[in-house]
Design a protein that fits this description.
This protein is mainly alpha-helical and 261 residues long. It has two domains: 51 residues, no CATH class; 202 residues, MetI-like (MetI-like fold, Orthogonal Bundle), CATH 1.10.3720.10. The protein is 85% helix and 0% strand. The protein has ten helices and no strands. 32% of the residues are buried.
């Protein structure tokens, strides 16, 4: 029986691998992609990067401007994640199978979370661009909607993982719905929820660069401006500051997670 099971799993793995290879080959044919040229262009790309894409002493004069735009981007990302977390917690309470008021509200909450989560942040930015124009508010709402959808789904799963034991115990003592939610569910789920919010902040900072390019604001717009004007030295400095900010935020997030989890 074990031999048959492993043989079946091996056949399934080989079939999946064959399908992936077939899809990859078909994509190469349809797009007329030159595989050999793609691999041989790597040394040329690395050589160009080392020759042109590096900060110089003159580009360091732009550092205060870069840091100011980076700070704006980070603050917008944090604000979008934290406000979205508050809204997501409310929808997660209604959407969770443990704390739901009724099936209708649960379905609506899960449906809204799915809708907002599956629309890409770039698509949100383009949609909102027509309403709010090129402003920081457009980037904020684009990040907010994506954060809201993701956190709602994450919070629902977190609440469901808490387990119904404590909820049933409080309910058996005659505790009200709000007592169960605020005395049992939220305190038990809060550490994991904070971890998800920190993860969303990191993701938003990465996404904010692309959003800034589309909306003409923040560090993304500054990078696009200098890159298109062929000022690669300043553009490379912007990339370094973005990477540094992301690593710093990730370090802080990991430290907070170790403390609360």
């Amino acid at each position: 029986m074990k031999t048959d099971f492993f043989a079946k799993k091996r056949r399934q793995s080989l079939l999946i691998l064959f399908v992936l290879v077939l899809v990859c080959y078909g994509s190469i044919i349809l797009t007329d992609y030159d595989v050999a040229k793609g691999f041989t262009s790597f040394p040329m790309a690395i050589d160009w990067g080392l020759s042109n894409f590096y900060p110089t002493e003159a580009s360091l004069a732009k550092l205060p401007e870069i840091l100011a735009e980076l700070l704006q981007t980070v603050l917008v990302s944090i604000a979008a994640a934290t406000v979205a977390a508050v809204c997501a917690m409310l929808f997660a309470i209604f959407g969770s199978s443990i704390t739901k008021v009724n099936n209708f509200m649960s379905t609506i909450s899960r449906g809204i979370a799915t809708l907002f989560r599956n629309i890409d942040v770039a698509a949100w930015a383009m949609i909102l661009l027509f309403s709010f124009g090129q402003s920081a508010l457009t980037g904020y709402f684009a990040l907010f909607f994506v954060s809201f959808g993701f956190l709602t789904r994450a919070f629902i799963e977190t609440i469901d993982e808490v387990g119904s034991g404590s909820v049933e115990a409080l309910t058996a003592t005659g505790a009200s719905y709000f007592t169960v939610v605020f005395q049992s569910v939220i305190p038990s789920s809060l550490p994991q929820m904070i971890s998800w919010v920190l993860f969303m902040v990191e993701t938003n900072i990465r996404s904010a660069t692309l959003v800034g390019i589309l909306t003409g604001t923040g560090i993304g717009f500054l990078f696009d401006l200098y890159y298109k004007s062929l000022n690669y030295n300043v553009a490379s400095l912007i990339v370094i500051t973005i990477v540094g900010a992301i690593l710093l935020i990730e370090y802080i997030s990991n430290y907070v997670r170790r403390v609360i989890l």
